[in-house]
Predict the structure.
Amino acid sequence: MPMVIAELRASIPMAACQFIWSNESGRVINAWSDTFQPRRAAWIILHRKQYEIDAGMTYQDLVLFGKPTGNLRFWWDSGFDATASYAALFERYGYKWFLDGIVRDSMRPYGNFGLIRNRDDPDFTAAEESLLARVLPYVAHAMRVDVSRAPKFIRAAGQSALIVCDAGGDVIEWSRQAHQLAVFALVDSITYEAEVAHGDLGEMRTALKDIVLLLRKRIDENVAGAELPALVRRNGWGEFVFRGYRLSGSRGPSDRIGILIEQLVPFEAHLLERVNATELSTRQKEIALLSAKGVPNAELARRLNITPNTLKDYFKAIYARLEINSHHQLVERLSADQPIAVG
């Protein structure tokens, strides 16, 4: 979903984009946002009934019976901007304009997109709403695919953040990114039944405290010079590594514990993102992606219904464009975190 939303952002400018998953009966089973604010999610959970009254529609009615797009466009003619929900979920964050898109097929709903713009930006246009509508069937098709094979995870640049905690495991300081990573690492699903405590997702706070205390114990037992104590958590959001170390103050070591959270991404998703960053043609990107994933040349030619000699010509063009000389260099180039340089 992060990659789908990134592609949407490239075509439709927005301040934030969210996706809420639905089961067959229209019940919320999870949520994700590229600018996720845990306290915003907590407010919706605590005030669900008020939110649905203010919104003028339940989530179930939205995903089961709503139009493909624009179900909530009536907000600005019905006084939504004078409600408690608008004040807590939009005004507080500088948001206003909202465009929804329902992902479903003839069998069931899968969820809905929420595209959000700041109040100082223009509203979404009819052309942008039409573009979103054209994307929705492809997303539904992709969500029907059952992925049973556990992906390989790798490190990716920019997906890490630091949390500073006290000796008891309570948070002293963290950035919005660190807060967001902690939620995705420690909360398997965000539903209306999720635990909320102190205006935040309580399940995350409890799990984080347990991790801090365990890493602190490992720090105390750690041999000087050894690798930082670490824990690994894997769920539907990806794989997350927690590393702990004792922080120092102006007078030497303190009781504060630093927790570095690093999110690892699926290798295939990273490859796709890297391939799309090149200036290769569409067919060249397809060949480079499949080859980097380990598909043998004979199988690759069969899948694409081309001859081995034609495949060789494609590889020559790909290597020339990327200024490399071998399959090994292709894999290295597409697996790296550094920007891709093209001639």
Notes: The radius of gyration is 23 Å. The longest helix spans residues 202-221. DSSP finds 13 helices and eleven strands in the chain.
